[in-house]
Write a structure and sequence with these properties.
The chain has 169 residues and is mainly beta. Helices cover 6% and strands 44% of the residues. Strands 6, 7, 10, 13, 14 and 15 form a 6-stranded mixed β-sheet that branches. It has a 5-stranded antiparallel β-sheet with strand order 8-9-5-11-12, with no helix packed on it. Strands 1-2 form a two-stranded antiparallel ribbon.
């Protein structure tokens, strides 16, 4: 039988409904590089935030940027029609005093050229319950991805309509 965890004897709620108190801490701002439906294999990514880069041949994690398992399980998803995911802990970094009003996250991507990928794919960004999807055009490489495909700007205040970020580029 499921149980509801409590915090100091009270049920933790989000939007008036029971919630686990861990969820917002585990994933704050999620970036998903998704090549589902393209028929391509092995998109490599490079996401830079708070002085750390994560992605194939770029780095595995930092305190505020975490490379999460992709569609095939490993962080470096080499599968056909897969995805790679990144969690940027922007709220934790703001609490730590690393930014105040806005912060830029740099997103790079490239098809691993030994397997011959090409074409566009999707960058899917989710933060504070809002998801934005953008078509991106990765480059090609066989190391750390160097083609910038987007910059995500995160804001400390609502920019209108519940939007606390924008996806540019």
């Amino acid at each position: 039988m499921p149980t509801i965890k409590t915090l100091s004897g009270k049920v933790v709620t989000k939007g008036g409904k029971p919630s686990c108190n861990c969820c917002d801490v585990l994933t704050e701002l999620e970036i998903k590089y998704d090549w589902g439906g393209t028929g391509m294999y092995d998109l490599d990514t490079n996401t830079t935030a708070f002085g750390k880069s994560v992605g194939y041949n770029c780095g595995n994690s930092g305190l505020y940027v975490l490379w999460l398992p992709g569609s095939s399980g490993p962080k470096d998803d080499q599968s056909q029609n897969g995805f790679e995911r990144i969690n940027v802990r922007v709220d934790s970094a703001r609490t730590a005093g690393l930014w105040t009003t806005s912060y830029n996250i740099v997103c790079k991507a490239g098809w691993f050229y030994p397997v011959g990928g090409s074409g566009t794919c999707q960058l899917i960004v989710t933060y504070k319950g809002v998801t934005v999807t953008k078509s991106i055009s990765p480059g090609t490489q066989n190391g750390c991805a160097s083609t910038q495909v987007s910059t995500i700007t995160v804001y400390s205040t609502d920019q209108g309509g519940g939007m606390f970020f924008e996806v540019n580029g």
